[in-house]
């Protein structure tokens, strides 16, 4: 056994020896450390091959040992005992107890029952069996007939819609769907298309109360975050800028990106609410931070008055 294990490990040892100089060579920073050179690969392949050969040898040796053992000390065969034959009646009863789903589905009768199925007349000595098709098949068959009659009546006699009319109807439906889709698509909000919309303020307030007051205060007066009620802004004061700040956040400064938490519509709502806070001057408001926002054109002016007076 000792000899054998030495034999088993010798390829591994030899691989170690072979691999050692390769390891000793300082690896260039440009060459990836996991990549193997061709010679290393060859050594590895040879090693694996040797391992497989070794395994096969061991298996064959084992088999040989078994054969030799069996030859020297043959073991007697176990005596085979045939199972007791089942008598016909019990077999039939057993069979009857559990009818096969398959034969039930196809209403197959066992061959032993055939005698009972014979119809008592013969044509040239040929007997017929009374073996009706299963009920489901008949239902299907007569069903197709009824369907055909209905189809014939609806489309050909009572003047149901023809192919052309059906086509037109489908196209009308698709056009209506398209219109509905485009209408909802126009509802999509982003930082470029956002417009002041006073109807969104109420919903925006609930969103603000649920998500933002911890840092911006109940009245937007500012706590950890800046006051949202003055005209000084860190990241721009147009409705588009505010939308952008809320959507993408300022993660480095503790303002989260709300893109994943709130839908675009929700952001539009909360942004409209924030714009409605302009100039509300709540008590204990935080000192203004950032730059004063000067609207570039009249339509950029979104003040408390302009937004609520629509
Ligand atoms: C964890 C605290 C925190 C929460 C919650 C939070 N913010 Fe902020 N927010 C901040 C901080 C801090 C800043 C300032 C970022 C900076 O210094 O650049 C800020 C900045 C802003 C700004 C830009 C202000 C400016 O002067 O440009 C807006 C707008 C804003 N937050 C809206 C919101 C809205 C809307 C919510 C809720 C959906 C919200 N924030 C929730 C901490 C928060």
From TrEMBL:
Instruction: Show which residues constitute the signal peptide.
Output: 1-19
Record's Gene3D superfamilies?
Answer: 6.10.280.130, Cytochrome c-like domain
Q: Which residues form the Cytochrome c domain?
A: 199-278
Keywords, alphabetical: Heme, Iron, Membrane, Metal-binding, Signal, Transmembrane, Transmembrane helix
Q: Does the keyword Zinc-finger apply?
A: no
Identify the domain of life: Bacteria
- Tell me which PANTHER family the record gives: CBB3-TYPE CYTOCHROME C OXIDASE SUBUNIT FIXP
Protein name (Swiss-Prot/TrEMBL): Cytochrome c oxidase cbb3-type subunit 3
Q: Which organism is it from?
A: Pedobacter zeae
């Amino acid at each position: 056994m000792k000899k054998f294990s030495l034999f088993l490990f010798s390829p591994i040892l030899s691989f170690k020896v072979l691999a050692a100089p390769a390891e000793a060579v300082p690896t260039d920073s440009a060459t990836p450390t996991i990549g193997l050179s061709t010679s290393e690969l060859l050594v590895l392949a040879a090693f694996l091959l040797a391992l497989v050969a070794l395994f096969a040898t061991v298996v064959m040796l084992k088999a040989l040992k078994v054969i030799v053992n069996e030859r020297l000390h043959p073991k007697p065969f176990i005596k085979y005992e045939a199972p007791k034959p089942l008598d016909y009646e019990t077999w039939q009863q057993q069979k009857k107890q559990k009818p096969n789903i398959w034969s039930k589905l196809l209403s197959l009768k066992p061959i032993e029952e055939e005698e009972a199925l014979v119809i008592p007349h013969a044509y040239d000595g040929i007997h017929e069996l009374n073996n009706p098709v299963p009920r489901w098949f008949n239902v299907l068959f007569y069903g197709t007939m009824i369907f055909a009659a209905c189809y014939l009546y609806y489309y050909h006699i009572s003047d149901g819609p023809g192919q052309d009319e059906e086509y037109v109807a489908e196209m009308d439906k698709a056009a209506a769907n398209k219109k509905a889709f485009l209408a909802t698509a126009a509802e999509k909000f982003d930082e470029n298309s956002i417009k002041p919309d006073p109807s969104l303020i109420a919903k925006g307030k609930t969103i603000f109360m649920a998500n933002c007051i911890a840092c911006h205060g109940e009245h937007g007066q500012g706590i950890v975050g800046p006051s949202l009620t003055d005209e000084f802004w860190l990241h721009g004061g147009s409705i588009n800028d505010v939308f952008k700040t809320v959507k993408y956040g300022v993660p480095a400064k503790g303002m989260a990106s709300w893109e994943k938490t709130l839908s675009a519509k929700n952001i539009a709502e909360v942004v409209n609410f924030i714009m409605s806070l302009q100039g509300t001057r709540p008590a204990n408001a935080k000192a203004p931070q950032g730059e004063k926002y000067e609207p570039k054109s009249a339509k950029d002016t979104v003040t408390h008055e302009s937004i609520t007076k629509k």
